[in-house]
């Protein structure tokens, strides 16, 4: 049977690491943890949990740190996962998938929780399992990628229903946000026409509530040919949220003139339109949008907002 190992890079993750390790230890023959400068006892905990612990002097490059980690794995395949994540869905036929000599990578679902009640989340796909091959390496100082390297070696990447829950967005971490902003800015200086980096820079500015900065970047890339359809939709959604915050109501309506096949995104799109009509005291039209099935079912829509809107509709006897 082919073996799977995990590569984790950490810094001050003592609150999260045990949950992560417990979720993957059934699957992994070896777990490598690379510490980049913890001061909270994370390395000691990693050792206690039975992982192989190594140390890497942080050089502001995530790809270098991840490549250092996989260098210490002796397994046939690599799972890369972060300490604030947890392997949730355990696909039974994973060993059947990795036996196929044409497959070099497996795409999984990343479920990003955005609130402490775990009631709202956003999903995306990412290649997190790949062959341990000397020429398959991460690239990029931040938002590092492995897929291009896999494809260049002639392997295929297949989708799976394996799910990783990510809890890192629940609590704001200003240190990480500032670090990401600096790394993205430096990377963009070398790759000024890379809309993928611009997209992540805008998201970081948005997360830090630097809405004017985020607006400028999102407006520049909202029709980019470099981004995926999901990234374009996310860009337009966040632009609409910025416009709504600035009371630019017609711009909200204009930027949201699309339909998403993703029910979570479509529900959020309609809820923002509903909020626009609500702020303009067009209660009847607002209720029509808030009552749409996609809004009710969307994991991206905060249900407490719907409750507040319904209270307003009751008061206004709509």
Mind explaining what this structure looks like?
The chain is α/β, with parallel strands linked by helices and 318 residues long. It has two domains: 163 residues, Spore Coat Polysaccharide Biosynthesis Protein SpsA, Chain A; 142 residues, Alpha Horseshoe (Serine Threonine Protein Phosphatase 5, Tetratricopeptide repeat), CATH 1.25.40.10. It is 45% helix and 19% strand. The protein contains 14 helices and eight strands. Strands 3-2-1-4-7-6-8-5 form an eight-stranded mixed beta sheet, with helices on both faces. Helix 8 crosses helix 9. The N and C termini lie far apart (63 Å). 36% of the residues are buried.
State which percent range the strand residues make up: 15-25%
CATH class of the largest domain: Alpha Beta
Work out the number of β strands.
8
Tell me the series of helices and strands, N- to C-terminal: EHEHEHEEHEEHEHHHHHHHHH
Query: Could you list the spans in which at least 5 consecutive residues all have pLDDT below 50?
Result: none
What's the SSE blueprint?
Elements: E1 4-10, H1 17-24, E2 30-35, H2 42-48, E3 52-55, H3 62-71, E4 77-80, E5 85-89, H4 94-98, E6 103-113, E7 121-131, H5 147-152, E8 156-166, H6 174-190, H7 195-207, H8 211-221, H9 229-245, H10 249-255, H11 263-279, H12 283-290, H13 293-297, H14 303-315
Parallel strand pairs: 1-2, 1-4, 2-3, 6-8
Antiparallel strand pairs: 4-7, 5-8, 6-7
Features:
318 residues, alpha/beta, Spore Coat Polysaccharide Biosynthesis Protein SpsA, Chain A, 8 strands, 19% strand, globular
Give a brief outline of the structure:
The protein has helices at residues 17-24, 42-48, 62-71, 94-98, 147-152, 174-190, 195-207, 211-221, 229-245, 249-255, 263-279, 283-290, 293-297, 303-315, and strands at residues 4-10, 30-35, 52-55, 77-80, 85-89, 103-113, 121-131, 156-166.
